[in-house]
UniProtKB/TrEMBL annotation:
Protein name, as recorded: Short-chain dehydrogenase
Superkingdom classification of source: Bacteria
Lineage: Bacteria, Pseudomonadati, Pseudomonadota, Alphaproteobacteria, Acetobacterales
SUPFAM superfamilies listed in its UniProt record: NAD(P)-binding Rossmann-fold domains
SMART domains, per database record: PKS_KR (SM00822)
Native species: Swaminathania salitolerans
Length: 266
């Protein structure tokens, strides 16, 4: 696909930017002319990610921050906006998958941890950034939900409920922010790989020993792919184009939508 430079002179904040999806989207936004502020909890991975940009026509900034800490987030955003520029676009994407266990065995602390990152953390970022956008009467936001937020997969109580929450947050925020000329959409990826997330997910589903999956991770992979109408995994590089589209003026009348990136699983 040919790319244009729809975001020249603008600034994009990407959370979870040291991770697979965040970095792929950050790279796409930079290629399309946007300055990028990379935010992640993991300092070492974030430094590596920032060093991987070989561009001299856009600015790349980094924020090491835990999105569960609202005060730290506000503080770091102030500094990054002063250094790089006001945030025009937000990819609100940091996330954590958590434990895999049926609800009656699901670890209580892990449930709280997943919700505090995937839902409360996403709200923190949305609040802190949209306040700034409201003051400027302009902005576009994409949240990362998941197919787990549109269907409730077994053994993923913390993650599934948090991602349902992200879909709800997207719908509420799209209405709250429409009067301020700000659009809010979400993506719902499913079964991306190969890679660490795919291996972890299939190994942990196999280990739950429930009726839904085989106890052999390789068999779980086959079972899951058999449930995808397109009969293959999604590639991480199939995500950035959709996010860039939703952030851009090409999607100027689209808000409140959660777009599955799922090979046909609905
Ligand atoms: N990969 C998939 O198959 C898949 C499918 C559906 C949804 N998702 C969602 O996509 C998003 C990105 O996932 P990914 O595959 O790139 O995973 P990843 O693990 O590669 O990246 C997630 C990043 O978020 C960061 N992070 C976690 N907690 C944080 C916190 N409290 N504060 C700041 N940063 C934090 C991590 O350090 C990591 O770099 C997540 O929200 C995930 O739930 C992924």
């Amino acid at each position: 696909m040919s790319e244009t430079r729809r975001f020249s002179g603008k600034t994009t904040l990407v959370t979870g930017a040291a991770g697979n999806i965040g970095l792929a989207v950050a790279r796409r936004m930079a290629r399309e002319g946007s300055n990028v502020i990379l935010l992640d909890l993991d300092r070492a991975k974030l430094e590596e990610a920032a060093a991987s940009f070989d561009t001299d026509d856009v600015a790349i900034g980094s924020i090491v921050c835990d999105i569960t800490d609202y005060a730290a987030l506000e503080n770091e955003l102030d500094k990054a906006e002063s250094a790089i520029g006001p945030v025009d676009y937000l990819f609100n994407n940091a996330g954590y998958q958590g434990a895999f266990a049926p609800i009656h065995d699901y670890p209580v602390e892990d449930f709280q941890r997943v919700v505090s990152i995937d839902l409360v953390g996403a709200f923190h970022v949305l609040r802190a950034v949209s306040r700034r956008m409201v003051a400027r009467r302009s902005g576009s936001i994409v949240n990362t939900a998941s197919m787990a937020g549109l269907q409730g997969p077994p053994n993923m109580g913390g993650y599934g409920s948090s991602k349902f929450g992200v879909v709800g947050l997207t719908q509420v925020a799209s209405k709250d922010l429409a009067p301020h000329n700000i659009r809010v959409n979400a993506i719902a990826p499913a079964l991306m790989g190969p890679g660490f997330m795919w291996d972890r997910q299939t190994e942990l589903q196999a280990s739950t020993n429930t009726q839904y999956f085989s106890t052999d991770p390789e068999q779980v992979k086959k079972e899951m792919i058999a449930g995808v109408p397109m009969r293959r995994l999604g590639d991480i590089e199939e995500i950035p184009g959709t996010v860039a589209f939703l952030l851009s003026e090409d999607a100027s009348y689209i808000t409140g939508v959660t777009m599955p990136i799922s090979g046909g699983i609905l």
